[in-house]
Amino acid sequence: MTSLLIAGGRVIDPANEVDDVLDVVLKDGQVKDVGKIVGQHVGSSVGDDLIFDASGCIVTPGLIDVHVHFREPGHEEKETIASGATAAVQGGFATVCCMPNTEPAIDDDGRIDFVYHQASRAQMANVLPVGAITKGRKGQQLAEIALMSAGGAVAFSDDGVAVASASVMSKALTYVAMTGKVLMQHCEDPQLGGGAMNAGSLATRLGLSGWPRVAEEVIIQRDIQLNLRQGIGCRYHVQHVSSGGSVDLIRRARHDLFGQTHITAEVTPHHLLLTEDQCRDYDTLYKVNPPLRAHRDIEELLSAIKDGTISVLATDHAPHTQEEKELEFAAAPYGIASLECAVALYIRALIESQTIDWPAMVAMMTANPARLCGMGNKGHLAPGADADVTVIDPKLTWTVDVEHFTSKSQNCPFHGETLTGRPIATIVGGQIKLNYDRDRLNRGHQRKPPK
Ligand SMILES: [Zn+2]
């Protein structure tokens, strides 16, 4: 197997505290070396290998998104594992974790196996399955958690809905704790809502039912208490935090209960950039669950990112057909398809706003999600790590065009937005799956060795 040398980029590898202009060598599906290599070897040992000129770019461990919805099995018209895995690499993601809310739900080891099988046929991004917590995601009987864990489920979630019953949740925390994996909760008490948008005066004026912030907050608080009571300390992760009040609860638990409980949280690009005001014209592209909230929530989310309360960025890529999104607001399904523009959205929300710097943002998309889901060989660039790398041009200005999406769905409210920064190469297992700027491959050969 030939090797691939990614030359002259700013390598940001937060797990190893690397942030420097360096070269990365990939060989036999692994990271072989990171250092100043081109200067020493041009014209000699790297002579026959592929060289990708990453000058002016940021080179990171392959980006990881722990929250996507690929609709296979059941709704292949929206997304398949293959189309979703292709959209992922287009967006710079080498690895994604897909939620089990398919039809049927991913709730046994055979279906875990099915996801791996379809992903390996697609040969695009790594797709790692999240198993359901309860059978059929119905919230009543626990699913085959141990079997799914043994079969390769990287986490457990009933995403789309919360585990509403405290007694079922209590058992789920116990069983997931035994696997050592993480329980991801979609925090929303169904008895407090079920609405189309954020509960409040705007929803009332629009005649729409609302999801109040407290629906999210009570589940988080309940789960913190249940997890403490167990004394088992299940690794517990709050999916798509939307409310400032939730941030307070998570921050306090992380601080006051340090060592007694394990709680992490993720946030989506849309909850960082959009507010409920966007629902004003009944545009269903802005209908998501949990709903878009207010500016003050965004400020709280940003402060939570700044102080590490929220440590993971996740898209919640949720593809739907145009026909479904053309339904009236109350009837249309929740979700935004954002895998293919997410990196630029994070740059806008976090770097351009000067909330955090590049190494902090890269950690939230590499080292932190890898740790969350127990991906020891991913999320970093130490020798021996999987040969997954993303190259981002931070200055490239481009316009989101859903017609160019490789996802099967186009339900993205960022269509037409001009954004700065985009992944130009996604390398998975040493293979280049996205090569946006084709001129850069082998351009390194034209460099002259220093005399
Ligand atoms: Zn969810």
Give a concise summary.
It is built from 14 helices and 18 strands. It has 451 residues and is of the alpha/beta class. Strands 1, 2, 3, 4, 5, 16, 17 and 18 form an eight-stranded mixed beta sheet that branches. Strands 6-7-8-9-10-13-14-15 form an eight-stranded parallel beta sheet. A two-stranded parallel ribbon has the order 11-12.
Helix count, per DSSP?
Answer: 14
Radius of gyration: 21 Å
Distance between the termini: 30 Å
Strand elements, count: 18
Q: Regions with pLDDT < 50 over 5+ consecutive residues?
A: none
Instruction: Tell me the major beta sheet.
Output: 8 strands, mixed
Overview of this protein structure:
With 451 residues, this protein is α/β, with parallel strands linked by helices. The protein is 29% helix and 22% strand. The chain is built from 14 helices and 18 strands. The chain has helices spanning 38-41, 81-90, 109-122, 145-150, 166-179, 201-206, 213-230, 244-256, 269-273, 295-306, 322-325, 342-351, 358-365, 367-372, and strands spanning 4-13, 18-27, 30-35, 50-53, 58-61, 63-68, 93-98, 126-131, 155-156, 182-185, 197-198, 210-211, 235-238, 262-267, 312-313, 389-399, 418-428, 431-435. The strands form three sheets. Strands 1, 2, 3, 4, 5, 16, 17 and 18 form an eight-stranded mixed sheet that branches. It has an eight-stranded parallel sheet with strand order 6-7-8-9-10-13-14-15. Helix 5 crosses helix 7, helix 7 packs parallel to helix 8 (244-256) and helix 8 packs parallel to helix 10 (295-306). The longest helix is centred in the middle third of the chain and has 18 residues, at 213-230. The radius of gyration is 21 Å and the shape is globular. The chain starts with a strand and ends in a 16-residue tail after the last strand. The model has no long low-confidence stretch (mean pLDDT 95). The structure holds zinc ion (ZN). Zinc ion (ZN) binds next to loops.
